[in-house]
Amino acid sequence: MTDIELVIKIPEDEYKTLSKMSEREKVNELSYYERIIADGTPLPKGHGDLIDRKKLGIAPIDSTDLPLDRCLMVYLAEDVDGAPAIIEADKGESEDE
Hints:
By secondary structure, the protein is an alpha+beta fold. 31% of the residues lie in helices and 15% in strands. It has 2 domains: 1-42, no CATH class; 48-97, no CATH class. The protein contains 4 helices and 6 strands, in the order βαααββββαβ.
């Protein structure tokens, strides 16, 4: 049996309530969990690390093709490579392979 990584989105107050429930209470809420899972987004096989882009620094680069008050903002490869993963990369084969 293979595992699937699933991204779900629920209101924070519901998450806090669920995290405080006992195992017995959670079993009674099974239909709720089934709805959460059914609404989840499966991550593709072979995905890379998921990182928090907001925690990366941005490096401005001057460009003569942009308006005078603008510059091109880029992420440095070393910052992206060194960013901590929120979800680790899937080491399995990608769906494209």
